[in-house]
Structures are given as structure tokens and as C-alpha cells.
Amino acid sequence: MPDTPASYKEILLSDTQVYKGLSFESVITNEVSRLPFETLVATKVGNDDCKILMNNHQVLHMLRTRPQYDVILVESYNSDCGLALAANLSAPYITLNPQPLQPWQYNRLGINFNSAYVSQSGLSYGKEPWYFERLKSYLLYHITNWVYYVGSQVTDHVYLYNYLGDDLPTLESIASNASLAFVNTHQSLHGGVAKPDNVINIGGIHVRPAKNLPTEIERFINEAEHGVIYVNLGSTVKDSTLPSDKLKELLSAFAKLPLRVLWKWDGANLQLPRNVMTMKWLPQYDILKHENVKAFISHAGILSAIEAVDTAVPVVAIPLFGNQYGNAAALQDVGIAAIVFYEDLKKKYLLDAINEVLDPESQHRAKLASRLWHDRMMSPLETAVYWTEYVARYQGAPNLQPLAPKIPLYQQLQLDVLAFVGLVLYIMTYVVYKILSVLCCCCCRRDEQSEYTEQRRTKRVKFE
């Protein structure tokens, strides 16, 4: 980190960061198998990170000397190991989620999950799922929670015994006691879910003022008579692994467009249409800020989704992994995205989606969404600074923490109250039933008695 203040100290956990990237062959199109598998992979990475953290000699020295901190900020995504370290240092701690909320984070934050209106970040069902989508969402929510519990919390807890002692509380309880949770979203994009006061949206905190574009890129964009489409399918998957049939479909679609195409491509040299330019790296936000960029073909990663809304550029979303599906659905719900799933990546569907987002109505909705995104009392950075200092001022700000995570499940669901109400209704129904039965019996006896009396009178008259 350049130009650091004198009070800044950095501990490098690893000086050999090797990232090989994934292949397009790793894309799993069936969410029933994809979500549990991706959760398991994420927890395995979290387990490895926990071992790197706790094996660092400077971290171990920190545990022995126990320096004083006002606030500890900890990333919270695929492991709660860092939270355990923060809790052991006896200081208020804030969790930072670089993505939208994960299924295993709802309960700890006191958020009630309901598949009818709470969307999961790994699913593309959006805000209005139909019945079978709600059913799958409900089942996958509990399955991924179980996978995370076994793969991350149980595994990390056993490992942390060696460093933090046998009396270490459960990682879920440690996570539930966080003072705040910073989440990289905003209600204008991922709205519609009731959250406690200590869940703070800071979506867009990474965005900085746009810089001047390199000359070659700026000339390519400026000279585009009909505008430019920017293409970037992310850095998680290596472009060079794109299957030849999918690559052919992309190039065929681009060749049909009157617009120019600027494509982040790190694979081998291609036979490109005349309107296409590729580079191994591109300044994405600076490009999206250019007024001649009309659409963004993206994998819908959270940073790309944020930058698209920030710059009012509609999106053709091709989600591949994890939260990209939920981000694509959120963009579509806002009205500024068309989704083309990877298995449907063909020239026809891609051109249809491009034409949809190039429509003036879609462009108008993108500008409206951007205004909503920017309409805040404070910037994301100012928001994060304010609430961090708030936690420091009030020793963890316990007044913001929700009670729901500390209440047993049967009380959260009000099962005891419903059982009492059900018992009262049963007793009242039974009493009413008995009263009606007695009245009916009395009426029947009177009718029988009257009928018997009438028959005797009739017989007597005949006899006389």
C-alpha cells in the first residue's frame, strides 16, 4: 500500500500468491448440484486460509501480547476463522462481506429467510420466483447451510482449538456477536429484504473517480459511429478456455453488429471481425464512464454489476459462478439487464439480448437506476468510516445488534404462541361442539315427545 501513514502496519500472510484461474469447463449449469458444490469449494479455500492465518508467527505473537484495538474489521465470506481471532483479542469487530449476503449469514444477522421474497445470491430466480423455484430455493438454502456448517465451522473450530483454547465458543455465536456487518450491496440494486440496523450497505466503496483512457482505447471508442459494446467475462475464468463452439457464436454475433466491440480477451490471437478490438487488460470503470459505451456484456460479478449501475450502462449478463446468478437477476429486476445463460450462449440469443439492452427504454431505465444508486446521504466510503467510528465510540454499539440470533428457533417462529392459540381454539371449538350437541339432542327429544303425544291423541280420537 503506497504512502501509508506512520500508524499503519501490515502483516503479509503469504508472499507467494499464485492464482491459476478456472476453466469454462468448470461451469455447472444445474443449480441443484452447483450450489452445494460451490459452497464446498469455498469452504475448502476458507480452511486453507485459516491455516495460513494461524500459522503466521506475527499473528501468533499478536495472540500472546494481545495488543489493544478500538475496532477490528474482518472479512466474512467462506470462513469465520478471522472472526474467532478478532473475538479472542477482546475488541469490537465488524464483518466485511465483499459479496451479497450468503445463505449461511442470514440467521446470524437476524434476517428471516423466506424463499417467496428473499432471493439467494447463487440463484437467478429474482424477486418473483414461481412455485418450483421457491421450492428449490428453500431446499438449497438448508443444504448449503449444512454444507457450510460441516465444511467450514466444524472443521475450523476443531483446528482453532490448538490456538484459542478448548473453551472457544461456537463460530456461529462469534459471528452473531459482530457489532456491524458491512455488505457490498445497495438497496437500489439488491433491495426488498428487511435487515437489522447493524447491517450496513456500502456497495460501490471500491469505485474511484474515472481516469483518462489510454489513447488507443479512447480513439477506438470516439470513432465508433453507432457506439461501443464493452465485453468482459471476468478474471475468475480464463478466456483462453472458452470452448471453440461458444467462441464461434460470440464472434458471429459481434460481426453482425453495427457497433464496435471492445473485448477483454487474454487468450490466443483470433481472426476478429473488423469492428472488434481485444486487449488482455482494460480499465473497465473508465471505459464504462465513456458516454459512447452503450452496453456491457458481463459475467455479472458483483464489482461489474456495481460499476454498470454506477455508470448507467445496461448489461447482457452471462453468469458463470456463485453470486453472478443473483446479481444478474437483480439487474434484470431493476430493468437494465437481459440474461443469456452459458448453456444458451448462441448467436441468436446473444443478438436478441443485445438488441433488448440497446432499446431506448432500457437505456432510460439504466439512467434511472444510476440516479437511485447515487442518491445517498453519504458516499459508501463515508458511510463505512462513520459506522466504524460509531462502533469505536460506543464500545461495540450493542444497541444496534438484533435479538433474533440469540432467541431459540421455536420462539423466532412463535411456535409456543401458535401452540397456545391452537389449544385455545381447539378447546373453544370442542366446547361449542358439545353445546350444539346438547341443544340438538334436546330439540330431537322434544320433537320425539311431541310426535309421540300427537300419535296418542290421534289413536284416542279414532277409538272414540
Features:
four-stranded parallel beta sheet, 464 residues, 9% strand, UDP-glycosyltransferase, alpha/beta
* Count of alpha and pi helical runs: 16
Q: How can the largest sheet be summarized?
A: 6 strands, parallel
Radius of gyration: 31 Å
Taken in chain order, the helices and strands follow as HHEHEHHEHEHEHEEHEHEHEHHHHH
Q: What is the CA-CA span between the terminal residues?
A: 123 Å
Give me the secondary-structure category: alpha/beta
Number of strands: 10
Residue share in β-strands: 5-15%
Overall geometry: globular
Low-confidence regions: none
Instruction: Give the proportion of residues in helices.
Output: 40-55%
Q: Record the strand order, biggest sheet.
A: 7-6-5-8-9-10
Mean pLDDT: 91
Pfam families: UDPGT
GO molecular function: UDP-glycosyltransferase activity
Protein name: Glucuronosyltransferase
Family: Belongs to the UDP-glycosyltransferase family.
Task: Describe, in plain words, how this protein is organized in 3D.
48% of the residues lie in helices and 9% in strands. With 464 residues, it is an alpha/beta fold. Strands 7-6-5-8-9-10 form a six-stranded parallel β-sheet, with helices on both faces. The termini are far apart. The mean pLDDT is 91. One of its GO terms (molecular function) is UDP-glycosyltransferase activity.
